[in-house]
Amino acid sequence: MNTRPPLETTSLPLVLSIAFNDDCSCFAVGLNTGFRIFSSETCTQTTAREFNAGIGLVQMMGKANYLGIVGGGRKPKFAANKLILWDEGKSKSALDISALTPVRGAQLSKERIVVVLQNSVRVYKFAKPPSFITAYETANNPLGLCRMSPRIIAFPGRTVGQVQVVEIATSNVSIIPAHSSAIRALQLSPDGELIATASETGTLIRVFSTRTCTKLAELRRGIDPAAIFSLAFNPSGTMLACTSDKSTLHVFDMPKAKRLGGQNEDGVPETASDQGKWGILSKIPLMPRFVKDTYSFATHAFEAGDEPSGANQLLSESSTLGTMRLPKGVIGWLDDASLLVVGAGTDARWEKFIIKEEGAGKRSLAKAGWKRYLADY
């Protein structure tokens, strides 16, 4: 006899996607009924758009009224192969871009619209109608990985484990051989000078210069494999945060921050986190690599949230998310000392963490607030 309680798909509020705007002052969530926008600092709802149909992706364009949205869920509002530029000020679609395959991601600026597909990235001029500029082939990219700054666009390369960095002004393409397995996460620093990447193995995070493609840092999240959920630099680019399916938030120092004067074996300047995990053991020859690696200076558990059995199956086969998993652990920095971790699903949560000075140069993470943000509306 089947004793599992039925999943009420018609009444279950479900967050399908999460995206912060460029300065993380607010975040947008796609729901199985529409989309909403929240103030990051207080998790206060500022905008609600009800369609009585699913939105699988919402991408903000700074603080402008324009949003990029794509249908999703079991009852999508729009076709999965169409990116809608929604004008919230006029409460209507301003323009749209259709593709031959489902849209996996999007990036918006006042000059460019970037549409991410499973195996390509297409760039358009922001105009009415949008003017196609160029396209780039990529390896399989079901998560729609792509980031854009005023200077560059970064996304997976044609070869597994590589990253392509495109100079917007010149269209020059640089290739970074970041990992030996598929890219799982990538993020640009706020100034676009650094790019952080993680593979599907999830043990190491690598940081490169976007101008020279030089590896600047190799950071160890842990020894056991994990699925990296999110990477995010703080506003000054001196720290990098990471979340994974281990339900742990990590914060690392960047090489240029808090220099101690030494260099590791790769010629990278040492930071407090270089010398703090294993101490003198890291200097002993022939020790295992993980002892010598750079670890986070602070960690804290975050709530991934409990989902009812079958919640992930509320995503359609052609889900914009590209996987049958709901996004968790999405990071946004409020300032250089505080950050948010936001999760999707039916148990959608907003959590705030702060970096505390402990004395003697040590720092820790502390939870400063949390909210089941869907339950309040």
TrEMBL record:
Keywords: Repeat, WD repeat
Subcellular location: Vacuole membrane
Transmembrane segments: none
SUPFAM superfamilies xrefs: WD40 repeat-like
Membrane topology, record value: Peripheral membrane protein
Family statement: Belongs to the WD repeat PROPPIN family.
Full protein name: WD40-repeat-containing domain protein
Lineage: Eukaryota, Fungi, Dikarya, Ascomycota, Pezizomycotina
